[in-house]
Amino acid sequence: MLLHIPDVLTQEEVAHCRRTLDNAAWIDGKVTAGYQSAKTKDNQQLDESDPAAQEMGSLILNALERNATFLSAALPHKVFPPLFNRYEGGQNFGTHVDNAIRQVKGTPHRVRTDLSATLFFTGPDEYEGGELVVEDTYGVHSVKLPPGHLVLYPGTSLHHVRPVTQGARVCSFFWIQSMVREDFARTLLFDFDMGVQRITMDVPDHPSLVQLTGVYHNLLRRWAEV
Ligand code: NI
Q1: How buried is residue 221: exposed, middle or buried, by Cβ count under 10 Å (0-12/13-18/19+)?
Q2: pTM exceeds cut of 0.90
């Protein structure tokens, strides 16, 4: 499932991060690339130990914790500390698959990359190109979102970022280890949860709601690893 989640950050949070990102110390993006993806990766990143990156990373993690759609869709077990990248002057990232396991730098913590996420800081009108193109079993999706919006897609997908030919594209990107490893099971639980929530809104006292909520939790109990 590829999911667009709007307004993960407030306008104030976006503005705060934009000021920080404008003054940040950008370095060559190859530092976090694996052997193969380093050959196709041409962008800039903030160092993982950069205090500015860590401050914005915490802000993003807090925003994710209050976002019901994200929690239901990702069923997060662990979230990798958000990283930040910038593309300009023709920079791009060729087709690749993200590494399956990411070590959090300077810690013993590892995250299995069940889901990939990109959170946009610059708007579609601020740069040319720079689409995130994701290939999954349902076809090819081209994604370019307003500031503060996030796209979530399976870590198993082939993906690339098209060249930014004008302006600059600034985003945060990170990975999620889900309590439910398989995309199929996770998507089914998300659809089920959305359906139950809709009935709860439309017919709050429907007698089947307790039963349906029970089915959701029993499926989650069957599939979740915590
Ligand atoms: Ni990637």
Answers
A1: exposed
A2: yes
- The C-alpha atoms of residue 226 and residue 221 are separated, in whole angstroms, by 10
Q: How far apart are the C-alpha atoms of 218 and 128, rounded to whole Å?
A: 47
Instruction: Output the CA 175–ligand 1 centroid distance in Å.
Output: 10
Interval between CA 99 and ligand 1 midpoint (Å): 8
For 50-84, what is each residue's pLDDT tens digit?
999 999 999 999 999 999 999 999 999 999 999 99
- Note the residue count of the chain: 226
Answer for the pair 133, 184: CB distance below 8 angstroms, yes or no: no
Q: What is the pLDDT of residue 224?
A: 98
CA–centroid distance, 211 to ligand 1, in Å, is 40
Round to whole Å and give the CA distance between 59 and 132: 23
User: Which tokens sit at 73?
Assistant: 């869709």
Q: Whole-number mean pLDDT of the chain?
A: 96
Largest separation between any pair of C-alpha atoms in the chain: 59
Centroid of ligand 1 to alpha carbon of 130 (angstroms): 13
CA of 111 from ligand 1 middle (Å) equals 15
Give distance in angstroms: CA of 173 to centre of ligand 1. 9
Going from the Cα of 217 to the center of ligand 1, the distance in angstroms, rounded, reads: 32
